[in-house]
């Protein structure tokens, strides 16, 4: 018996975590390597392999473990009562499975780390050529270098399946992060080894802590010359305290890694040659799903995909029960009086980089199913005999809105395939099915729609997708969503963190001050930079990125995150210069452009087609100025051969979609087509003086 208890104590010793604790005063650099994985105790298979917590509770009892095991076996030999219906107490740990999400601030290396995990799990052949950022499969994601949509994959490590969810890092796509956290049991919080926690780090960590997810801190990019791991660990600990984390949550494990090199370790000075320490930490620290496969089926739909042949694909984690191909199910959400019947088509699980067909999927695993054409995110796929919906997914409310309109410019219909209000409405309604953070409301007229999102970038990604699909439309300037609280007008405020070289700090302070920003903190950054934190109205951030890059010669880095609603700050001027407006429809000439560029900076080049009312440049003074950019040089017998010769034409400003949205004000619209991005004066808006 003594040997049995000693064996249980050794199991507990193996399970002890090397974690960060401010109270104990341990330094990250002095952290010991974690012990071996917890092995199955030699109790003849009576206990589950991951029964560490159960063993710990048993040792605290006055009855020896071996005695109680014998007694439980004796009770089992007695005549058993009739079997009761499954309850929550019948749940068991699935020790062959781990579900994790990777969360971080933008550009802290989430997708790159997933790439390395996939490669080291032998997902690809040794001679296979693999692109960088494999998970960023969307064209816009690859072009911009950011993750927009959360994605699922899975790897296997020592017989254990690890479902991995890669999430966006930009604050505007926080809705993606909020809903996928429902599928995971733990998170890898990536923090840059130089920058430390950033605004979006705070947002994603707050959500993970609120859902009681196990947090493993991964100090990424540890190979950078300016890496400061001790500072990063301390800053992360302080952030957890600010977010009200419990003592247990503050005692977090730490892994140091370089995703681009595919190495990790438990000490920043001695890294392994691969990601073995990271895989070990995931298996050891993340609790396996607690499930009951005999209970009624429950699966919360957290994502939707679409296939041309299979139709709508619902993705989610099975909370209880199991799912089989061809099964009759019910679909409902809390508050529904009646469940919708349905039949499962095909069932898929994630294996390596693919979706693999499966006949049956048990509770705890993440799967994708077809056959339910009307299912939506937030609904529960339930047992037909005993439908029990799970709580629906909630995300934070939008803070910015834009007006989408049917394009009515003189060039309307030239370049787009879908141009009517019906086309626009159907596309926006389809986007609502999977984009939980988006809202669509009818506008003032039948051809207007108010689209609300988490930020201008959130909505602009939708616009970019639509134009690539062949849609043509117009949009108004971004505007903040205000609220009435206790009779007072309130507007959204954001926390803005700017890192800029010290010589440009004055310009940044002036710019943020003009837009009603309040300085909260100023610190010395790395490599001669300063980091300044402001609380600023969201209105003040609209159109600020280009202004800040211009003022700091492209050296400033701006990161923002929603903070709270505060009192209305009054009027904010976001643009001091007017626009150059064409007053003639035709083709731009070099001769006319010479005169135009003396009045400002043009957007157009010789040969471009423009129309009356189109904004063709930035006026160098306040107020708009109408100009003729189509004027031709008079041809005579003497000058006909050189009528279009010109000198001194400067390069026009290239206005992309994001640039145009930042530039426009209340009396202007952006015309979006599959081919062109134009700015025009709104026919209905009151002209500025």
TrEMBL record:
InterPro entries: BipA, BipA_C, BipA_GTP-bd_dom, BipA_II, BipA_III, BipA_V, EF-G-like_DII, EFG_III/V. PROSITE patterns: G_TR_1, G_TR_2. One of its GO terms (molecular function) is GTPase activity. Residues 95-290 form the Tr-type G domain. Residues 13-22 have a biased composition (Low complexity). One of its GO terms (cellular component) is cytosol. Keywords: GTP-binding, Nucleotide-binding. This is Tr-type G domain-containing protein.
């Amino acid at each position: 018996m003594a040997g049995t208890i000693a064996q249980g104590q050794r199991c507990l010793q193996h399970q002890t975590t090397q974690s960060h604790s401010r109270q104990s005063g341990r330094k990250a650099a002095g952290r010991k390597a974690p012990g071996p994985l917890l092995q199955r105790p030699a109790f003849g298979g009576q206990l589950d392999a991951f029964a560490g917590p159960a063993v710990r509770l048993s040792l605290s009892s006055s009855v020896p473990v071996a005695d109680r095991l014998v007694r439980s076996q004796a009770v089992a030999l007695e005549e058993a009562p009739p079997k009761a219906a499954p309850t929550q107490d019948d749940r068991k740990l699935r020790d062959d499975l781990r579900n994790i999400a990777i969360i971080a601030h933008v550009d802290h290396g989430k997708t790159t780390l997933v790439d390395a995990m996939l490669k080291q799990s032998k997902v690809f052949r040794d001679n296979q050529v693999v692109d960088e950022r494999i998970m960023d499969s969307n064209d816009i994601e690859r072009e911009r270098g950011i993750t927009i949509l959360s994605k699922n994959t899975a790897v296997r490590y020592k017989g254990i399946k690890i479902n991995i969810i890669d999430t966006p890092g930009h604050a505007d796509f926080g809705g993606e992060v909020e809903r996928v956290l429902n599928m995971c049991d733990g998170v890898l919080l990536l923090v840059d080894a130089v920058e430390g926690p950033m605004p979006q780090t705070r947002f994603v960590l707050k959500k993970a802590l609120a859902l009681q997810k196990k947090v493993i801190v991964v100090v990424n990019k540890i190979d950078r010359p300016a890496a400061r791991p001790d500072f990063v660990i301390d800053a992360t600990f302080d952030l957890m305290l600010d977010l009200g984390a419990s003592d247990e949550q503050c005692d977090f494990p730490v892994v140091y890694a370089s995703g681009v090199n595919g190495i990790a370790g438990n000490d920043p000075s001695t890294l392994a040659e691969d990601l073995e320490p990271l895989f070990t930490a995931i298996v050891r620290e993340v609790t396996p799903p607690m499930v009951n496969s005999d209970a009624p089926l429950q699966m919360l739909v957290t994502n939707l995909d679409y296939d041309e042949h299979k139709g709508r694909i619902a993705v989610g984690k099975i909370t209880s029960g199991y799912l089989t191909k061809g099964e009759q199910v019910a679909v409902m959400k809390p508050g529904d009086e009646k469940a919708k019947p349905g039949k499962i088509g095909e069932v898929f699980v994630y294996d390596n980089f693919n979706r693999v067909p499966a006949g049956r999927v048990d509770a705890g695993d993440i799967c994708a199913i077809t056959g339910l054409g009307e299912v939506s995110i937030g609904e529960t796929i339930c047992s037909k005999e005993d439908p029990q919906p799970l709580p629906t997914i909630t995300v934070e409310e939008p803070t910015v809105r834009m007006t989408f309109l049917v394009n009515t410019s003189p060039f309307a219909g030239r370049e787009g395939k879908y141009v009517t209000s019906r086309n626009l409405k159907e596309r926006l309604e389809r986007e609502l099915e999977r984009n939980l953070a988006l809202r669509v409301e009818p506008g003032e007229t039948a051809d207007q729609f108010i689209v609300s999102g988490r930020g201008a970038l959130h909505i602009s990604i939708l616009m970019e997708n639509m134009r690539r699909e062949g849609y043509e439309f117009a949009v108004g300037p971004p505007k903040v969503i205000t609220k009435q609280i206790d009779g007072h007008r309130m507007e959204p405020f954001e926390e803005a963190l700017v890192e800029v070289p010290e010589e440009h700090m004055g310009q940044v302070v002036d710019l943020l001050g003009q837009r009603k920003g309040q300085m909260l903190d100023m610190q010395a950054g790395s490599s001669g930079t300063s980091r300044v934190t402001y609380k600023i109205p969201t209105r003040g951030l609209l159109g600020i990125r280009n202004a800040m890059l211009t003022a700091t010669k492209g050296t400033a880095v701006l990161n923002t995150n929603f903070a709270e609603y505060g009192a209305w700050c009054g009027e904010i001027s976001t643009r001091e210069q007017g626009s150059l407006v064409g007053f003639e429809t035709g083709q731009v000439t070099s001769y006319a452009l010479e005169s135009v560029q003396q009045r400002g900076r043009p957007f157009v080049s010789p040969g471009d087609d423009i129309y009356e009312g189109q904004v063709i440049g930035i006026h160098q003074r306040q107020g708009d100025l109408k100009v003729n950019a189509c004027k031709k040089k008079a041809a005579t017998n003497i000058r006909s051969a050189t009528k279009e010769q010109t000198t001194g034409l400067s390069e026009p400003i290239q206005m992309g979609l994001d640039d145009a949205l930042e530039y426009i004000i209340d009396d202007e619209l952006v015309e979006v087509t599959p081919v062109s991005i134009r700015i025009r004066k709104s026919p209905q808006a009151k002209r500025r003086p």
